[in-house]
Amino acid sequence: MTDTERHTQGISEWVTTRDGRRLHAKVLPGPTYVAGTSGPTVVFEADATGNRVSWARVQPIVAALMRAIVYDRSGLGRSAPDPADRSLDRMAEDLNEVLDHFGPGPFILVGHGTGGPIVRLAAARKPQRITGIVLVDATDEAAEVIFDPRLRRTERIFAGAAGVLARLRLLTLVFRWQWRDLPTDVRRELKREGFTPSVIRTRRQQSRTYFDELATWRTAPPDLGSIPITAISGGLGGNGIYATLRAETNAAHAHRAARSPRGRHVIAERSGHEIPLTEGFLIAREIHNVFEDEIRRRGTT
User: Fold this and answer.
1) For residue 107, what are the domain limits?
2) From CA 84, how far away is CA 93, in angstroms rounded?
3) Using one digit for the tens of pLDDT, what is the confidence trace for 224-264?
4) Which string of b and e fits 254-281 if b means at least 16 CB within 10 Å?
């Protein structure tokens, strides 16, 4: 039995950043992956405190066609913490170092929630190697409501409460719905790594400048040129997403897709924000659509 057969998310690999941090990744190689000959590699970027496990329902489906890579941002999962800040700028640089390690591409980047701006910024810095972007209920600066001070206060309150629950080892109970139906190997890792005090510290570290940086994008967003974007929106509210936030967020997703060549806006009708857990097949389908669109485009040029 191979390593990929033993673990749902594939083989562990380590990426060493320029400043010496080690980032943990899991790789499913797809059908006999050979660089430059077997289509793009898909790299997934998780939400705020999510790690590689967030994509356990999507990555294996995608890997039936393409190499599929998940990784833990610095300070999450098995990746080393960052002694510097966790600015949006720095997180995008880390993602580009992950891509450098697994290069040369091309890549399809997939970002969930707060991971959406990370993949957009990373792609804008080296667009020549990006075939497409899939944004999954992504944070977007076109939704003015995300800059409401009340949301910032709610985030601080949540982080404080989550920190207490993590220290008491009760945070897994609050979020047990996220892991109860996952494969056994993945569920075991999420319970061990996903709800610790260090995860909450990293969340606080990431959020210190995130929205301030994102606010500057309202007048100067990253230039993605001709990279096609698929934006997937949750169709449901709940879990802190009230009607106004859902409506403005989905309108921002439609706007993002409309500004992109061959852009698509898709509604996950049965999902709220956690689409990777509730409609993984839909995300995988849209990634496959990006791949097929690129094949058709190349065939006509």
Assistant:
1) 3-299
2) 13
3) 999 999 999 999 987 667 788 899 999 999 999 999 988 99
4) bbbbeebebbbbbbbeebbbbbbbebbe
